[in-house]
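Fold it.
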Amino acid sequence: MSSGAGGRRFPTDLEFGEAFKSLPQYGRGATRFILCRFEQSFEHKEPVDLASTTIEHVLPQTLSDAWVTELGSNAKETHARLVGTMGNLTLTGYNAELGNLSFADKKKKLMNTHIELSRWILSQPAWRQNEIAERADQLLTLAKELWAGP
């Protein structure tokens, strides 16, 4: 364990990884900054202007019938556990149009997105627990590259 000033300590890689993947990140002050930094890390020659983007919940904040079907058994529990986690969040300029649309409809609306964070999401046939967990793992790897601990 690494110590910081004033008796504080940095979390271990395991502690950081578990918190990053499983704790709700939406609503924390740094979430938009983190998502923007992820997007900037792709270093496009023609970067997207992120000033007008907002945080999008791929699995929406309000569970609709279409999403209950998408998530399958234990939909309410799965939704409650994953909706605010980093694996379920991206950036978009189309937040108002996306709302509670089904995953298939969201994919259609985002098909021409210029935001790299959404590309892998759009390649998925479904958006359920396994896909959200896999994306969280990918973003955790990127976070560790961008913000190496002591």
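The longest strand covers residues 54-57.
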